[in-house]
UniProtKB/TrEMBL annotation:
Residues 154-319 form the Alanine dehydrogenase/pyridine nucleotide transhydrogenase NAD(H)-binding domain. It is an enzyme of class 7 (translocase). It comes from Eiseniibacteriota bacterium. Residues 4-145 form the Alanine dehydrogenase/pyridine nucleotide transhydrogenase N-terminal domain. This is proton-translocating NAD(P)(+) transhydrogenase. SMART domains: AlaDh_PNT_C (SM01002), AlaDh_PNT_N (SM01003). Pfam families: AlaDh_PNT_C, AlaDh_PNT_N.
Length: 389
């Protein structure tokens, strides 16, 4: 059976799904491994290193997709302009695909995958359980994004982050506010603290207070019970209007005091919550910086332009959409370890052995046997069809 490592074709995508180190592991588990020439180039993994790991090179995307029994990649299938075909049409009928499919945002690709009887797995739907931790690519990419967001902010800020006591007098430390203390937010707190900033963090989940404080930051969120604020998976859920109003008031006060605001708040499957309205941006100090890590889901700040940097009311607002790709070596290494752990979880003696009673296998599966098996995705497709009708 052949595992194929596809070259990413998304704009500004420099990562590769599998590094040579992981290719070797996949080969050792009994798979033949093929790689599209140059797939690792953007992250500085040379073709030669893959060959040394036991992979074979193929020269075209068409060959890679059509020969593979399972295709491994990062981005969801996209239209391949050079081949004038959608990647979901290139994969051999009945084969498998593992990527960050984000099915709720990519229903066109999902419909093609179902029609072509592809068994597709979405790495971003990995259950948040201890057993699945090694395969949790969402956490890996959030870790990178949280770190890089602080570097972008400090590079833009017309101040330094740490307090300095010098012959020229004392420089006060900058104040960084992190909104959303999940995986990305906690990494942003740790990075900003290492750079010497005074850090505060806001979240609706009370469970994060302790983690925030253990990283040396102050927790400034509303006082909600765990049941009000989060679901069984540990994700935030929509909160009551009154709790929302109180939290928002508290948040806007903190935003006005901050030099840097890094927002990471998300609610799975929904648009990102709007937490920083335009008039709050107008009340920030001139020269302040916002990095909105929820830009790809519409943004936490009203003035965010996804994929762009804009200046409004003398505040620079970054809306990066693919931050992990700007750190391609380590982002690829982490994703590769996650996706390889997942592939090996699905492997018995060099081929796929799919146990649908296993929560990792069934929880990540989006399409199989010609059906959309993920309920939320099926509902989204039905809603879209009704809206069109
Ligand atoms: P996420 O990306 O979905 O959300 C980021 C943060 O935004 C979360 O902390 C969330 O509470 C917060 N948020 C959502 N709405 C908000 C609002 N209106 N105002 C303020 N903050 C808001 O979350 P994530 O980082 O992917 O993970 C969430 C949690 O899941 C983690 O903190 C962790 O507890 C848990 N987790 C568990 C595992 C595991 O057990 N294997 C792995 C990863 C994460």
């Amino acid at each position: 059976m052949i595992a194929g490592i596809a070259k990413e074709i998304g704009s500004n995508e420099r990562r590769v799904a599998v590094t040579p180190e992981s290719a070797k592991q996949i080969k050792a588990a009994g798979w033949d491994v093929i790689l599209e020439t140059g797939a690792g180039k953007g992250s500085f993994f040379e073709d030669r290193a893959y060959e040394e790991a036991g992979a074979s090179l193929v020269s075209s995307a068409a060959e890679l997709w059509s020969r593979s029994d399972v295709v491994l990649k990062i981005q969801p299938p996209l239209p391949n302009r050079a081949l004038n075909a959608h990647e979901a049409e290139l994969i051999r009928e009945g084969a498998a695909l593992i990527c960050m499919l984000r099915p709720l945002s990519n229903i066109d690709a999902v419909k093609i995958l179902a029609r072509r009887r592809i068994t597709s797995f979405s790495m971003d739907m990995m259950p948040r359980t201890t057993r699945a931790q090694r395969m949790d690519a969402l956490s890996s990419m959030s870790t990178i994004a949280g770190y890089k967001a602080v570097l972008i902010a400090s590079d833009t800020l017309p101040k330094i982050l740490p307090m300095l006591v010098t012959a020229a007098g004392t420089i006060a430390p900058s104040r960084v506010l992190i909104v959303g203390a999940g995986v990305a937010g906690l990494q942003a707190i740790a990075t900003a603290r290492r750079l010497g900033a005074v850090v505060e963090a806001y979240d609706v989940r009370p469970a994060v207070k302790e983690e925030v404080e253990s990283l040396g930051a102050k927790f400034v969120g509303p006082q909600l019970s765990e049941r009000e604020a989060q679901d069984e998976q540990g994700y935030a859920k929509a909160i009551s209007p009154e709790a929302q109003r109180q939290g928002m008031e508290m948040l806007q006060q903190r935003v006005a005091q901050a030099d840097v605001v890094i927002t990471t708040a998300r609610v799975p499957g929904l648009k990102a919550p709007r937490l920083i309205p335009a008039d709050s941006v107008a009340r920030m100090k001139p020269g302040s910086v916002i990095v909105d890590l929820a830009a790809d889901m519409g943004g936490n700040c009203e003035l965010t332009q996804p994929g762009e940097t804009v200046i409004r009311h003398d505040v620079t607002i970054h809306g990066p959409v693919r931050l992990a790709s700007t750190v391609p070596v380590h982002a690829s290494q982490m994703y590769s370890r996650n996706v390889t752990a997942f592939l090996l979880h699905l492997t018995r003696q060099g081929s796929l052995h799919l146990d649908w009673t296993d929560d990792i296998t069934s929880g990540t599966c989006v399409t199989r046997d010609g059906e959309i098996v993920n309920a939320a995705t099926r509902q989204r497709v039905e809603d879209a069809a009704t809206a069109t009708a």
